Amino acid sequence: MSFCSFFGGEVYKDHFKTGIYVCSKCDHQLFSSRSKFEHSSPWPAFTETVKEDSVSKHEERPGAYKVRCGKCGNGLGHEFVNDGPSKGLSRF
Question: Are strands 20-22 and 45-46 parallel, antiparallel or unpaired?
Answer without folding.
Answer: unpaired
